[in-house]
């Protein structure tokens, strides 16, 4: 497995345009097609992004692609397609989430959407949702620690939503993690 590629997030719009040009090759680790790569770039370079660095992670990209395809195959946009919650989906691929992330049906890592024909349109929709915006832009300290990114896009004209998008932003477990239980509304320490 390839190591995650680091992309430093610039602070000014001028720096953003320069970074987009010079770091385009790194985006292949964030998404497997141009649509996914464009959404990854929008997430990374949004002026409201609170993280200073995001790493394109191949396991998260794989999870996002698998999720987008699974939603298209079933014709639904849902966090629980295939019977696994988002956290469990990453764990099944070998990505080591902190133990305090919620279990089988938990989701502190995924955003999904369907029916948006462009990366720009789905990004605006995500930003219009307070929960998705908070996660994807790292507006809370919990989410700011999530520095790995993977984006999936799948197109199937015969499926009800036609375009399917999945975004994973997560972090791996570390020895410094406290033992806590986390839900969508926050964490509870023992």
From TrEMBL:
InterPro entries, per database record: CAP_sf (IPR035940)
Biased composition (Polar residues): 10-31
Disordered as annotated region, ranges: 1-31
The protein, known as: SCP domain-containing protein
Domain of life, per lineage: Bacteria
Highest classification ranks of the organism: Bacteria, Pseudomonadati, Pseudomonadota, Gammaproteobacteria, Alteromonadales
């Amino acid at each position: 497995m390839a190591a995650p590629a680091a992309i430093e997030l610039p602070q000014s719009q001028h720096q953003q345009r320069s970074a987009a040009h010079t770091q385009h090759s790194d985006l292949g680790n964030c998404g497997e097609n141009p649509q996914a790569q464009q959404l990854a770039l929008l997430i990374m370079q949004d002026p409201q992004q609170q993280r200073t660095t995001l790493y394109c992670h191949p396991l998260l990209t794989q999870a996002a692609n698998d999720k987008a395809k699974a939603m298209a195959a079933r014709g639904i946009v849902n966090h629980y397609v295939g019977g696994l919650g988002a956290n469990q989906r990453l764990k099944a691929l070998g990505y080591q989430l902190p133990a305090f992330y919620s279990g089988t049906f938990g989701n502190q890592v995924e955003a999904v959407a369907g029916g948006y024909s462009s990366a720009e349109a789905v990004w605006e929709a995500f930003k219009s949702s307070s929960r998705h915006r908070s996660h994807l832009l790292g507006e809370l300290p919990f989410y700011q620690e999530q520095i790995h990114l993977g984006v999936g896009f799948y197109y199937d004209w015969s499926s009800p939503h036609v375009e399917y998008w999945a975004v994973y932003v997560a972090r791996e477990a570390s020895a410094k993690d406290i033992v806590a239980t986390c839900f969508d509304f926050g964490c509870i320490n023992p």
